[in-house]
Amino acid sequence: MSKRIDVADLNVYYGKFRAVEDVTMTIEPRSVTAFIGPSGCGKSTFLRTLNRMHEVIPGAYVEGTVTMDGENLYGPGVDPVRVRRQIGMVFQRPNPFPTMSIKENVLAGVTLNNRRMSASDKEELVERSLRGANLWEEVKNRLGLPGSGLSGGQQQRLCIARAIAMAPDVLLMDEPCSALDPISTLAIEDLIGELKANYTVVIVTHNMQQAARVSDTTAFFNIAGTGAPGKLIEMDHTEKIFHNPSQKATEDYITGRFG
Amino acid sequence: MTTVATTKTTLSSLTGGELPRWTPWAVLAAAQALGLVVLGTANLAGAIVSGVVLYLVTIAALSGVVEGRRKATDRLVTSLVVAAFVIATVPLVSVTWTALSLGLRRFDAVFFTHSMAGVVGEGGGALHAIIGTLLITLAATVISVPIGLMTSIYLVEYGRGPLARVITFFVDVMTGIPSIVAGLFAYALFSMMFGPGHRSGISGAVALSVLMIPVVVRSSEEMLRIVPNELREAAYALGVPKWLTIVKVVLPTCIAGIMTGVVLAIARVIGETAPLLLTAGYIANMNYNLFADRMTTLPLFVFTTYRNSGGTDVTDLDRAWAGSLVLILIVLALNLAARLIARYFAPKTGR
User: Fold this and answer.
1) According to the model, what pLDDT value does residue B11 have?
2) Among A59, A241, B35, B137, which lies 20 to 30 A Cα-Cα from A97?
3) In the structure, what pLDDT confidence band is assigned to residue B4 with cuts at 50, 70 and 90?
4) Domain range for residue A241?
5) What does the DSSP assignment read for A115-182?
6) CA B220 to CA B135: how far, in whole Å?
7) Does residue A136 form part of some domain?
8) pLDDT digits (tens, 9 = 90+) for B84-138
């Protein structure tokens, strides 16, 4: 169920402003791809175009193609809702639904889409998803309590469980650890390592050590200056990016010499 | 006195003079006593007001001498704020007291089980008015809530550009519309449809909903706007269509606030008199049918019985006060209901 994503000549616009320029890349299945780069370089924006979440922002549109195993996500007649059912997303701040219990949060993808499911299938899906997110042991005795009562790190893992309950092909993570403490971060990073066995994982991070720890491939984005569009500078094996980058800009950023 | 002496001697840059804690109360008592002595009990209000003014001047001067300018300003402004609060509560307490003491005279079983049909002299009740108020307000709510809620959903979730701005502008204008104009609108509308001089409960409900819709739109709009965008995004990222996101995520998250707003909007229109005078009219008999004949509401009942009394007839005056008390109690119950709803439906944190 893990799928390859090919991006070709992708430009992202907010109205007249071009936020991301000419990105071409391939994201391999069953691997973790990390996007790094300074704030405002368009890496989150680019991530959102991979499941058409940027369309939620008024005036945002893309040019170019994104294909998932040969299917163009921006082809005519493609329904963004269907795209998002196959490409899950986890956000920077944990956002469990406050009106729902832990169990209902995991099942949100099913119930919110009005899909029918037998009670035993639901039980099984909840357990499988929570185990998949390394949260089952911590919450199995309080599945009926509100999800917002968990700690920040647990909430984020609940959001991951909610995303993988939809059985997506790809999992996008937009700085999933930036609001968490180091221990919760470690838990999420371990989880990312396990998730890549089944999913294509793409993660945006500000933490370069994190990118080095969890990812197989790293893409470095940069901007020439304020108001200029973000560009993909270099993409390669994580080892290579961190030890022997081919671009000067990448080396400067990784070693802390930028600006 | 030794302690006072030692504190005086250890004055440092961090200590300053301080009035004893009882000083404000003592000054207030003295000022009021002086006011009463000078002006006498005949002019009680004047004595109290001049006592308060005297207190303000004295406490500011005293504090200025002993404690310095900053604390004097603090004491003066604190006293002014408390005085404003007391002034604001005076009418509230007075109204509650008057309505209770006068309204309880006829707050009996007969009042709640009889209409005014064929009543001359004593007896009679407001059952027809209570039923009318409940029916007309219920009808107004049934009309206003769907329209108002959907308008606010449009404004928050879909509205872009000039159309949304125009709607917002007209909602603002409608919020300030005089209630008699709403009554005239409903009267004209129903006269056009059913002939001049038409009177019915439903036309009153339409007049009330004209007043109620903008309140519902405004309050629900506020509530929908405070639902974090992150929750909408979380739902979209799960492949949930926009309309299901609104129905199943956005609305449940803020339903407590929306319902509170609706209840407060009901409380706002339940006491309307003028538009109902034009549309629902007054009748002494029971009328359970919203769509035919005149229908009495409590404000109209109060107004009519007061007018009948000529300002002197105690039987009618007592009825009017009992009617006011019932109306106040209904509004009070609605406000309590709003609080319970807010507490019951609010998202639980589980901590």
Assistant:
1) 58
2) A59
3) very low
4) 5-254
5) ----HHHHHHHHHHHHHHTT-HHHHTT-TTSBGGGS-HHHHHHHHHHHHHTT--SEEEEESTTTTS-H
6) 24
7) yes
8) 999 999 999 999 999 999 999 888 888 999 888 888 878 888 999 999 999 999 9
- Coil/strand/helix, residue B11: coil
Q: Residues with Cβ < 8 Å from A130, sequence gap 6 or more?
A: A106, A136, A139, A140, A158, A161
Inter-chain residue contact A146 with B348, CB threshold 8 Å? yes
Residue A259 inside a domain? The answer is no
**Is A90 within a domain?**
yes
In the predicted structure, residue B7 carries a pLDDT above the cut 50? no
pLDDT value of residue B5:
44
Structure tokens at B213: 């819709």
**Does the residue A84 lie in any domain?**
yes
Residue with more model confidence, A19 or B5 = A19
B176-234 pLDDT, tens per residue?
899 999 999 999 999 999 988 889 999 999 999 999 999 999 999 999 999 999 999 99
Alpha-carbon dihedral sign for residues B271, B272, B274, B279: negative
Contacts of B233 (CB under 8 A, 6+ apart): A53, A56, A91, A95
Average confidence (pLDDT) over B263-283: 91
Interface of B with A in 174-233 (CB under 8 A): 228, 230-233
Give me the half-sphere count of Cα atoms (radius 13 Å) on the Cβ side of residue B307: 7
Q: What's the average model confidence in pLDDT over B131-150?
A: 95
Cα separation, B60 vs A23, in Å, equals 71
H-run or E-run covering A12: strand A5-14
Output the six-digit token pair for A162: 């909610």
Interface test with B, best of A103, A112, A125, A154 (most B CBs within 10 A): A112
The verdict on a CB contact (< 8 Å) between A162 and B228 is no
Tokens of A129: 């998803």
Residues of A in contact with B348 (CB under 8 A): 98, 146, 148-149
User: Which of B232, B238, B243, B254 is the best residue to mutate to test the A interface, defined by the most A CB atoms within 10 Å of its own CB?
Assistant: B238
User: Of the segments A104-108, B6-10, B30-34, which one has the largest average pLDDT value?
Assistant: A104-108
Q: Let me know if B342 is exposed, middle or buried by CB neighbors in 10 A (0-12, 13-18, 19+).
A: middle
Handedness of CA B269, B273, B279, B284 (dihedral sign): positive
pTM beyond 0.90: the answer is no
Is A98's CB within 8 Å of B240's CB?
Answer: no
Q: What is the CATH number of the domain that holds A48?
A: 3.40.50.300
Q: Which domains does chain B have, with CATH numbers?
A: 18-105 (no CATH), 113-345 (1.10.3720.10)
For chain A, what is the domain count?
Answer: 1
Residue B255 CA to residue B244 CA, distance in Å, equals: 15
What residue type is A68 in one-letter code?
Answer: M
Chain A residues near any Cβ of chain B (below 8 Å): 51, 53, 56, 58, 81-86, 88-89, 91, 93, 95-99, 108-109, 111-114, 145-149, 159, 162-163, 166
Nearest to B152 by CA among B230, B202, B214: B214
Q: How are strands ordered across the β-sheet holding A230-237?
A: A71-72, A60-68, A5-14, A17-27, A230-237, A217-223, A32-36, A200-204, A170-174, A87-90
